[in-house]
Write a structure and sequence with these properties.
The chain is mainly α. It is built from 11 helices and no strands. Helix 2 packs antiparallel against helix 10, helix 4 packs antiparallel against helix 8 and helix 7 packs antiparallel against helix 8. The chain starts with 8 loop residues before the first helix and ends in a 17-residue tail after the last helix. The model has no long low-confidence stretch (mean pLDDT 84).
Length: 342
């Protein structure tokens, strides 16, 4: 998630230099062809390009709205996970036995540590590259991607360090380790109820809290495993490039600042290009960036700088739980990397 003042015109232009250069060259070639030939497609009027621009603008607006809604839903899910985790920490920290005395501190610590381990394991699973998702881009609005960081749940073994030693062997070979960890948490709670350490009320209440956590995990996995509709994404991209390809034609409909001047062809073309090319490149660039904005929000858990900062959220939850219960040492808050939280 890019923070305030994390995107500047300079950064956006930096990631678009290649595109802008291609557009400028294309406009120059059209200016030159317009001066050397009488092709009506180039020298004619430009209403078709204008109408196409309106259609592309409407479609990109729909695509951006859909992608943003997907990103917002992912953030809401993790906002609920924050609330559910704090509720879990508050409940575990104040859990009492059937006789009203506090539950053994080591048992409460185990339940808390397993929850922190589940958070880190879930974040790791969501961070894994999806076969149906987008490929990582070499830049995103001037920011380079951050990869292979254990603290950002992108290192293959980052989740192991947070697991309880007794749980690690049981997690091996499981296709969805986070789901199984919730099962182990429920198994432990059932054992406490069977041994009489907690009564049936606490048993039901804790299992309901686990159900809420499982629901948040399932909703996150639904977004992760369901790609943004490719017919919307690819058609929007194709329409954008078609419009960008045709837009320079609208700047060649009999306009010229050298009309009436006795100038060599190349000099006339160059002067017209210097006047009209910056405007044409700017309009093309705006459509290009608009399409990139929607693409940046298609898959909100992949770990790019524009995605939901689930690693930072995990760290925030762990800090809250450890300070709330006094179990373990709270880690420092996650720090932005180049004005972006991951």
């Amino acid at each position: 998630m890019i923070l305030h003042n994390g995107i500047t015109i300079r950064q956006m232009a930096k990631g678009s230099v290649g595109f802008i250069c291609i557009v400028l060259v294309w406009i120059f070639l059209l200016e030159l062809l317009d001066a050397l030939t009488q092709i009506d497609l180039i020298s004619g009027s430009s209403p078709p390009v204008t109408v196409l621009g309106l259609a592309v603008a409407f479609f990109l607006g729909f695509k951006n709205t859909s992608a943003y809604g997907r990103w917002v839903e992912a953030r809401k899910i993790w906002g609920d996970l924050v609330n559910a985790s704090r509720d879990w920490g508050n409940t575990i920290g104040n859990l009492v036995q059937t006789d009203g005395t506090p539950l053994d501190a080591e048992i409460r610590r185990e339940l808390l540590e397993r929850h922190v381990a589940w958070l880190n394991l879930l974040a790791f699973q969501l961070r894994q590259p999806s076969a149906t998702g987008r490929t990582r881009r070499p830049w995103m609005f001037g920011h380079k991607p951050v990869a292979d960081k254990a603290a950002l749940h992108q290192d293959p073994d980052c989740w192991r360090s947070s697991q309880l030693a007794a749980d690690l062997p049981r997690l091996e070979g499981k296709s969805n380790r986070a789901t199984y960890l919730l099962y182990l948490q429920g198994e432990r709670i059932s054992a406490l109820a069977q041994s009489g350490k907690i009564d049936s009320y606490w048993h039901v209440a804790l299992m309901n809290r686990l159900a809420r956590l499982a629901d948040d995990q399932g909703q996150s996995e639904r977004i992760k495993n369901t790609p943004f509709p490719r017919q919307v994404a690819e058609v929007g991209r194709i329409f954008s490039y078609v419009f960008i390809f045709l837009l320079p034609l609208a700047f060649n409909d009999e306009r010229s600042i050298t009309i009436g001047l006795d100038l060599p062809v190349m000099q006339s073309v160059l002067l017209d290009w210097l006047v009209f090319a910056p405007v044409g490149a700017l309009v093309c660039w705006i459509f290009f960036v608009t399409e990139r904005v929607s693409a940046s929000m298609e898959d909100p858990f992949e770990g790019d700088v524009t995605d939901v900062p689930i690693s930072a959220i995990c760290r925030m939850i762990e800090i809250d739980l450890r300070q709330m219960t006094a179990f373990g040492t709270a880690p420092p808050p996650a720090k932005p990397i180049d004005k972006a939280l991951i």
